[in-house]
Amino acid sequence: MNYGRRLGYKIMTNTYHYLCQEKLIKTRDISLITIVPISHALTYQAGQFVEILLRSGHCLLLSIANAPQTDGHIEFHLRHDEAHPIAKLFLNELEQDANVVLRGPFGESTLEQNIQSQEELVFLAGGTGFAPIKALLQLALVNSQQPLLLYWGIRRPEDAYDEPLLQQWKTRYPRFDYTLVLSEPHQHPSWTAPTGFVHDYVAQKHPDMKALCLFASGPFEMIQAAQRLFTHQGLKTHRFISDMLPKTIKTI
User: Fold this and answer.
1) Same domain, 230 and 124
2) Which end of the chain lies in a sparser environment, N or C, as judged by fewer CB atoms within 10 Å?
């Protein structure tokens, strides 16, 4: 997920140096970036994000798309269309120099801080907001026993760029399931899965949300709409977990 400057955060001094190991083009405007530490690796929790310090002087907030790994590598899901010029600039800089400087971690949308054993876990993703959700699911599939439900809102079928992984998880972990929801079905008449806004679909599937814990990541407008809707259906305010909501970002 590419975060904008909508969120305030505390100035930090912990800076880390990485190298870009792989750039994988998934669609015409979505790429997966993998970076590896040059020396010290960032210590973080699944669900957090970092600030990329570009050589141009710009900053880009990116969610980490993988749970912590022993080799310290970090994966990003980068949307680089015309609406995300800083992301495009980041890609251009990587073409010239593979060095990546980042600060972090930021964010509080982690399983360690929020999960309760009796709650049903629901994950809501919009577009590349799937990135931190993927990291959370990697951890939850191994460390929790609750049913795990993912709802991923996409504009085009190809935007479900990691669906092969989801299919693998569904086969390996019977308590995991996912649903893709297409928001622009008129352009894709052969689409047979659910359509519309993903948060509306989640509300239809879960009319009573009192016993849910819901993690959400995606466009700010979607997160706002989802929070309002889900609150009316009984979801406790502190169980709607998203770092896209305005708050002071702290490090862990």
Assistant:
1) yes
2) C
Q: Taking each helix axis as running N to C, give the angle between helix 163-172 and helix 130-143, from 0 to 180 degrees, rounded to the nearest 10.
A: 20
**164 and 72: one domain?**
no
Where do we find the tokens 């959400």?
A: 216
Residue with tokens 């990135």: 131
Q: How many CA atoms lie within 13 A of 129 on its CB side?
A: 26
Same domain, 116 and 237: yes
Q: Are residues 129 and 99 in the same domain?
A: no
Using CA atoms, how far apart are residues 137 and 94, in angstroms rounded to an integer?
Answer: 28
pTM of the entire structure? 0.91
58-81 pLDDT, tens digit each:
999 999 999 999 999 999 999 999
**Alpha-carbon torsion angle 134, 138, 144, 147, nearest 10:** 50
4 pLDDT band, cuts 50/70/90, is: very low
